[in-house]
Amino acid sequence: MAFFGRYTEVTPPARMVWTNDEGGEAGAVTTVTFEERGAQTLVVLRDLYPTKEALDEAIASESTSAFVEQFAELEELLATLDTGGA
After folding, report:
1. Beta bridge partners of 16
2. DSSP per-residue letters across the chain
3. Which of 9, 10, 61, 64 is most buried, most CB within 10 Å of its CB?
4. Domain locations in the chain?
5. What is the CB-side half-sphere exposure of residue 28 using CA atoms within 13 A?
6. Is 27:21 a contact under the CB 8 Å cutoff?
């Protein structure tokens, strides 16, 4: 899937915000935060749609359903990384 947008905020290592311009005026703004919790990291993803209609359209098109798969793949990848004994 093509991605068109721009990063509007990058605060290493805690926060990223970007636009989703492929949705035109109905595109969401995505915010991802990373919070250390001991030896783990809490990742929170939020999409803010400009209208309820834009959100309803995204749900109907199933464009929001990929998040479950994306996070499962991320978890699988992270499990393979060497943590340096941490």
Report:
1. 10, 32
2. ------EEEEETTTEEEEE-GGGGGG--EEEEEEEEETTEEEEEEEEE-SSHHHHHHHHHTTTTTHHHHHHHHHHHHHHHS--TT-
3. 64
4. 7-80
5. 19
6. yes
Q: Token match 């749609």: residue?
A: 49
Question: 3-58, pLDDT tens digit by residue?
Answer: 789 999 999 999 999 998 876 777 899 999 999 999 888 999 999 999 999 999 88
Q: What type of residue is 51?
A: T
CA distance 45 to 35: 12
